[in-house]
Design brief:
mainly alpha, Cytochrome C3, 4 helices
Length: about 90
């Protein structure tokens, strides 16, 4: 019984950490520091449709170039040029 409890807790911890990944590697060499953004913005709905986060519907090049660059410009923080996000 104790082994079962430990196994369930282990899976829960690792599953939770997978959903809240510190750095998400995206296409074209973009590294996104999710936890840093979540902490700075405090509201998941800034990017996500739901307050609890989850997949971003329509996420891709156009979304990122519009939403991310606009937010970085507005906050005067973060990269707004190509090499700022695409270092390679």
């Amino acid at each position: 019984m104790m082994k079962m409890i430990v196994a369930v807790l282990t899976v829960t911890v690792f599953a939770g950490s997978a959903f809240a990944a510190e750095v998400i590697e995206m296409k074209r060499g973009v590294s996104f520091k999710h936890n840093a953004h979540a902490e700075a913005l405090k509201d998941c709905k800034t990017c996500h449709e739901k307050a609890e986060g989850g997949k971003i519907e329509g996420f891709g090049k156009d979304f990122a170039h519009k939403k991310c660059k606009d937010c970085h410009s507005e906050m005067k923080k973060g990269p707004t040029n190509c090499k700022g996000c695409h270092p390679k």
